[in-house]
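FAQ: What does a ligand-bound record look like?

Like this one, built around manganese (II) ion:
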Amino acid sequence: MSANKTLLVLPGDGIGPEVMAQVRKVVDWMDRRRGVSFDVREDLVGGAAYDAHGAAISDATMQAALDADAVLLGAVGGPQWDGVAREHRPEAGLLRLRKEMDLFANLRPAMVFAPLVGASTLKPEIVSGLDIMIVRELTGGVYFGQPRGIDTLPDGTRRGFDNQTYTHPEIERVAEVAFELARKRGNKVHSVEKSNVMESGIFWRREVTRLHGETYADVTLEHMYADNCAMQLVRRPKQFDVILTDNLFGDLLSDCAAMLTGSLGMLPSASLGAVDGGGRRRAMYEPVHGSAPDIAGRDVANPLATILSFSMLLRYSFGLGADADLIEQAANNLLQSGIRTADIMQDGMARVSCTTMGDSLLREMDKLAA
Ligand code: IPM
Ligand code: MN
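The answer part, i.e. the structure of the complex:
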């Protein structure tokens, strides 16, 4: 891999900039200590971009994202933009990035770090050792389906409507990602939809079953309704290995799965596009948590989700598994040492700031690299 890997950093809104400041230290550390260097460019997205340019992402930033080897995003949104029209709202910047980069596969791991077992709201025996990978379809379904709108029927009845639609290539390409991941993990996929109610759900199940029979018969495949999946996630989460689901169900189920681990502040994600002819795939990495405007600017946020997103970036975009392992091991050791940000605070532990969490992680990385 050449030295000139390009990285576009989009801190965004709320706690985005403060957690990203900690990640930048990790990026510098990788350069200094491991010879992993990036050309880093930083730009605006979300409300910050709206305030500067009147759009949640400018065309120039969008182009930079399309050209970068990888994008690392903080978070978008905040109450100060509540009154802004939907097409300019902070979330629109995120959705445009996903759609125009064609990032159809969203990987959301829900892993319980052993030192944090007690931080979960579930009993330790239910969550200890938990390791689920949710593969959420990210560029289709009701998020983007047409027609959609708010209108008035001829008889004067007002209505709002969205449209859930999936084509067979859209289902197939994300299902392939799920099956391929399963082969490297526990070899099991739960495909989740509502085929008891929705035509698109019947079609989803049919297409996943067909692909499984044709190409992935060695992987165990189970089908599950989305409501049952939500229930099973809190009842017996360790039955899952890879969960494959659509955009909307994936949004809900990934928040639920995330909370099993104790805090949204711990969970990274990767959004991947197709591999092109040159073996390159567009990719964006971001924490599952949002911009948390209530705690923004107070240096109390947990930077680990974004730091672990950078570690996913090293692993999935650049094949730097050993470097990613080092960051994850350091995070585990750090938690083992009893240091906690507010979101994962437990009795007897030391509560630290976002900055201290970042600095302490670097020290753990130093120890591991010594
Ligand atoms: C997520 C978020 C987004 C989504 C919002 C901010 C548009 O909740 O990444 O899960 O709904 O996809
Ligand atoms: Mn969400």
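Follow-up question: can I read anything off the structure? Yes, for example: The chain has a mean pLDDT of 96.
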